[in-house]
C-alpha cells in the first residue's frame, strides 16, 4: 500500500462543498478507457517467466480491444513487477498503439536522476507513449523496506519524497544537474550538464497518485497529472465518488494557476474495480471480490488507516454500466481505469477486459 507524501486535509462541511458552483463542467469529449494490472514475474523456467509473458500478452490483447492505456503496479520485494520500465520497454516493441504507464512508481525507492534517465529512454523507445505515475512509498512498513533500501535521514518520508520529486521534474525539464569541474571527454570545464537522453513531452505526462484533497491540490500546484485509485485515504460525508470529484475540481483549480497553456492541460484519472459475469460459473470465479467488497462497505473507517473504498460494480455489462453511468468521480475525470484484481489467472484478466469493453462500455456515453 502506498501513501502520498502530502498531509491529509481537514474535513469540510459536506453541504458547503455540495453547494459550491461547479466551475468544471463535464467534458463532452470521449474519456480514455484504460486498465491497471498486477503483472507477476514468477513461474520461471529455462530463464523465462510465464508471468511476464502473460503480462506482455495482456497488453497486446487490451490493445486489440481498443483500450487506450495499460498501467502496471510497481512493487518491491514481492512477486509483482519490481522493474516495470524494463517490462514496459518490451511492451512498447510488441504493442504499437496503446499507451503504457505505472500506477504508481514509489519515489521512496528511487534515485531521481537515474529515474529520469530510465523514464526518458522508455518514452523515446515507445515514441512518446509513457504515462508515468509516481507516489511516495510504503510508509506503513518503513522498518522492513529500510533494510533493503536504506534508512531515511531524519525519518521524514514526506520531505524525502518532495525533494526527490523536485529533482526528478527538474531533470525532465532539462535543467542543470551537474557542472563539469574540469575538462571531460564529453564536456569542457564549467559546462552545465543535463540528464540524457531528453524526451521533450514527458514532463507533461507525469502524474501523482493522491489519496485525498490536499495531495490532489499539491499535485495540481506542481503542474502534474492526477491519479486517483479505488480508495480514498480520507472519509467524509460526500461519499466515495463525490469526494473524488471534489478532489479533481480542487486539483484543476491549482493546475490552472501554474500550467494554463492549452499545450499542457490538467488530466485526471480514476480507477474502478469491476466483477463482470454472465453465468453462475463466472460469478463463482469472482466471488472473493464480491465478498471483500461487502466487508469493506460494512467496515468503512475501521482499522489502523481511515480508508474508504469504492464499490465493485458487478453483474452483466448493462448492470455494470448502470452502476458507473452516474459516478461523479468518473464524470469529473478524463480517464477511467479498470483495476484488475491480483492473483487471478490470465484468462480471467482477459475476460474482465473483454466483457467490459464489449458489454459495458457501449452503454456509457462518456466512453463513446
Can you describe this structure?
With about 375 residues, the chain is α/β, with parallel strands linked by helices. It has a single domain (about 25-145, about 155-175, about 195-365), classed as TIM Barrel. About 40% of the residues lie in helices and about 15% in strands. An eight-stranded parallel β-barrel has the order 1-4-5-6-9-10-12-16, surrounded by five helices. A two-stranded antiparallel ribbon has the order 2-3. It is globular. Mean pLDDT is about 90; it is low at about 1-25.
Total strands: 16
Name the CATH class. Answer: Alpha Beta
Percent strand equals: 15-25%
- Helix and strand pattern: HEEEHEHEHEHHEEEHEEHEEHHEEHHEH
Oligomeric nature of the chains: single chain
Write a concise keyword list for the protein shown above:
eight-stranded parallel β-barrel, 13 helices, TIM Barrel, globular, two-stranded antiparallel ribbon, 368 residues, 16 strands, alpha/beta
Amino acid at each position: 500500500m502506498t501513501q502520498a507524501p502530502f498531509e491529509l486535509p481537514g474535513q469540510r462541511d459536506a453541504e458547503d462543498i455540495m453547494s459550491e458552483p461547479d466551475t468544471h463542467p463535464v467534458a463532452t469529449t470521449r474519456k480514455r478507457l484504460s486498465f491497471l494490472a498486477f503483472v507477476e514475474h514468477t513461474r520461471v523456467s529455462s530463464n523465462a517467466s510465464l508471468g511476464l509473458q502473460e503480462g506482455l500478452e495482456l497488453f497486446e490483447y487490451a490493445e486489440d480491444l481498443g483500450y487506450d492505456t495499460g498501467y502496471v503496479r510497481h512493487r518491491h520485494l514481492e512477486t509483482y513487477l519490481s522493474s516495470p520500465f524494463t517490462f514496459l520497454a518490451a511492451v512498447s516493441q510488441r504493442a504499437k498503439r496503446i499507451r503504457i504507464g505505472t500506477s504508481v512508481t514509489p519515489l521512496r525507492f528511487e534515485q531521481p536522476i537515474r529515474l529520469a534517465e530510465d523514464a526518458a529512454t522508455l518514452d523515446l523507445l515507445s515514441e512518446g507513449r509513457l504515462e508515468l505515475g509516481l507516489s511516495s512509498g510504503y510508509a506503513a512498513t518503513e522498518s522492513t523496506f529500510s533494510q533493503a533500501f536504506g534508512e531515511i535521514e531524519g525519518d521524514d518520508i514526506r520531505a524525502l519524497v518532495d525533494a526527490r520529486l523536485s529533482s526528478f521534474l527538474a531533470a525532465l525539464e532539462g535543467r542543470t544537474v551537474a557542472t563539469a569541474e574540469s575538462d571531460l571527454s564529453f564536456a569542457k570545464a564549467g559546462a552545465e550538464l543535463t540528464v540524457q537522453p531528453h524526451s521533450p513531452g514527458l514532463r507533461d505526462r507525469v502524474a501523482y497518485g493522491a489519496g485525498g484533497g490536499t495531495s490532489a491540490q499539491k499535485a495540481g500546484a506542481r503542474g502534474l497529472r492526477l491519479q486517483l485509485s479505488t480508495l480514498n485515504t480520507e472519509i467524509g460525508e460526500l461519499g466515495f465518488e463525490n469526494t473524488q470529484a471534489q478532489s479533481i475540481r480542487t486539483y484543476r483549480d491549482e493546475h490552472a494557476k501554474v500550467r494554463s497553456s492549452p499545450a499542457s492541460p490538467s488530466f485526471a484519472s480514476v480507477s474502478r474495480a469491476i466483477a463482470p459475469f454472465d453465468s453462475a460459473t463466472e460469478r463463482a470465479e469472482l466471488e472473493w471480490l464480491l465478498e471483500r467488497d461487502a466487508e469493506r462497505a460494512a467496515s468503512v473507517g475501521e482499522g489502523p488507516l481511515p480508508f474508504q473504498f469504492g464499490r465493485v460494480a458487478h453483474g452483466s455489462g448493462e448492470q455494470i454500466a448502470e452502476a458507473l453511468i452516474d459516478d461523479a468521480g468518473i464524470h469529473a475525470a478524463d480517464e477511467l481505469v479498470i483495476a484488475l484484481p491480483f492473483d487471478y489467472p490470465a484468462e480471467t484478466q482477459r475476460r474482465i477486459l473483454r466483457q467490459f469493453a464489449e458489454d459495458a462500455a457501449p452503454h456509457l456515453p462518456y466512453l463513446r
